[in-house]
Amino acid sequence: MELSVQLHMDQERVDRALEDYASQWPDHGPLREAMTYSLMAGGKRIRPVLTLAVCRLFGGQVETALPFACGLEMVHTYSLIHDDLPCMDDDDFRRGKPTSHKVYGQATAVLAGDALLTAAFSVLASAPLPSEQICRGVSVLAQAAGPAGMVGGQILDLLGEGKTLREEDVVTIEALKTGCMIEAAARLGAIAAGSTPEEEEAAATYARKVGLAFQIRDDVLDVLGDAGELGKPIGSDQTRQKSTFVALKGLEACEEWVDTLTKQAIQCLEPFQNKEFLCALAQFLADRTK
Amino acid sequence: MELSVQLHMDQERVDRALEDYASQWPDHGPLREAMTYSLMAGGKRIRPVLTLAVCRLFGGQVETALPFACGLEMVHTYSLIHDDLPCMDDDDFRRGKPTSHKVYGQATAVLAGDALLTAAFSVLASAPLPSEQICRGVSVLAQAAGPAGMVGGQILDLLGEGKTLREEDVVTIEALKTGCMIEAAARLGAIAAGSTPEEEEAAATYARKVGLAFQIRDDVLDVLGDAGELGKPIGSDQTRQKSTFVALKGLEACEEWVDTLTKQAIQCLEPFQNKEFLCALAQFLADRTK
Fold it and tell me: How far apart, in whole angstroms, are the C-alpha atoms of residue B72 and residue A192?
């Protein structure tokens, strides 16, 4: 199946499942509305699509991986809500829409993030999988999102603002802040499929490469891109004095780096059948213009 | 064993285990320090002690319940950090110590809360228990802490400020905001012990009664108590125009209500052996002066 068709089908599947979970949350004040506003704000669903694709690669049933995929997307969404808060990155817009605290106020935005993070683990625990696999999924997601992963990266990112960081520091921050969750997306797909440890490690390495390429491409687009398409003002990283890959290495070196990482990611999948979608996905993310 | 001895032993056991978990968090900026500051800020450990006591009641090994107890306490601690934020209750002190955002700033306080909530699920997943029991534990904790529980209660509480609420609304808010987590503490102990559904429900009912009595007693102490002992200014609920049980029913009726609930809680345990500690604990919480 062509990449765009499969991608669209998986994105739709994730969107429908997320809407279904959201409909089950109770109606306390503006909480459900705020949670749903950010969850359905037009994300590209890269992470949950990766979970489904890795599950399929290793012969698993996509339906069994869907709660893992949706839980991970809820955690990703909470992190965006909290990152946008005035005390953090202080962003008024994301994907062209006002951020949660601009619409609902800071208190509700904090709580909507908290609720999405917590609900994610309810969703994981409900997966139609053996308990051993669910436990591993909970552990992988909590590790990737916690102090040794995404939250750790976010605090290092905040500390680094206004400072000139070395390339290795920027790589570490991005690996924690973004890479851990992309790696977790792949691992969750492998766990849902009941893959071997070797299969899971191959998928994890693929995801780390794709994740870093994704982040470098983001920096490139932040300099090159079109404000309307990216949904945030051009050069916003520069304004906030963040050390980006482009600032460290220049545009051309970054574009080559993305190419190399993408080739390496595709190589990780060499031993496996039915890898076409994941190979095409890596290339699609590397080539994207928004 | 006398209540105070067992209580002190269990509190110590929880403190040591929490310190042990905290020592394993990575050292990214001020994150671990901020997480540990709030986690070890002198909490009474009522919830984790309840988990251990219920596990013991139903013949379980306390060591197997310790990760459940500690994970729950991490979730409770995160909720205090976020509740104290300027955009929420805006409290500068808790238990006589400056709150997280006063010491570390708002961004770190938000992230320390996020990290504690996430790490809690890593801790649960590491319990030395069969996967089925861990999955149930994850599900119970996530439900109790999420939009249908604690976070739902917090948003209703914020919405209710400055309004005159009916008694049933105050009961609902407190049941969600505080009661769900106290009930979850009991359920987690029962799950760790591998109890029967009937045993778990009896412990859950006991905990709901104790939890409501605890909250009413808190309101009473807010009016009666001594500022130094309670660690927050006297009458702070009144200042913030919260509808409290005392405001609704008066002091005397509240004290009677605490008595009745405590007697009912103790009755729930009637069928069980070795219930002395939990009976004494209910009475101890009802009679406390701080």
Answer: 27
Q: Is the pLDDT of residue A102 over 70?
A: yes
The residue in chain A having the minimum alpha-carbon distance to the alpha carbon of residue B108 is A155
Q: What whole-number distance in Å separates Cα of residue B135 and Cα of residue B125?
A: 8
Inspect the interface and report whether the beta carbons of A26 and B152 lie closer than 8 Å.
Answer: yes
Cβ-proximal residues to B224 (8 Å cutoff; 6+ apart), any chain: B251
Give me the pLDDT at residue A162, please.
Answer: 86
pLDDT of A226 over the 70 cut? no
- 3-state DSSP call for residue B94? strand
- Average pLDDT in chain A: 94
Give pLDDT tens digits for A145-204.
999 999 999 999 999 988 889 999 999 999 999 999 999 999 999 999 999 999 999 999
Interface test with A, best of B75, B87, B108, B176 (most A CBs within 10 A): B87
Q: What is the ipTM of this complex?
A: 0.95
Query: Is the CB of A32 inside 8 Å of chain B's CB atoms?
Result: yes
* Helix, strand, coil percentages, rounded to 5, for chain A: 75, 0, 25
List the structure tokens of B11: 């509190």
Alpha-carbon distances, residue B39 vs B22, B123, B237 (angstroms): 9, 14, 24
Report the pLDDT value the prediction gives residue B192, as an integer from 0 to 100.
Answer: 98
Q: Which residues of A touch B108 (CB under 8 A)?
A: 155
3-state secondary structure of A98: strand
The verdict on B141 touching A (C-beta cutoff 8 Å) is: yes
Among B residues 186-215, those touching chain A with beta carbons less than 8 Å apart: none
B224 band by pLDDT with thresholds 50, 70 and 90: confident
- CB–CB contact A114 B142 (8 Å): no
Closest residue, chain A, to B119 (C-alpha): A146
The dihedral built from the CA positions of residue A37, A42, A43 and A48, taken in this order, carries a sign that is: positive
Contact status of B160 with chain A (Cβ, < 8 Å): no
A128 part of contact set with chain B, CB < 8 Å: no
Token pair listed for A133: 């696999």
Most distant CA pair in chain A, distance? 52
Q: Which of A28, A124, A153 minimises the CB distance to B152? A: A28
DSSP string, A133-149: HHHHHHHHHHHHHSTTT
User: In the prediction, which pLDDT does B227 show?
Assistant: 47
Instruction: Please give, one letter per residue, the 3-state secondary structure of B199-226.
Output: HHHHHHHHHHHHHHHHHHHHHHHHHHCC
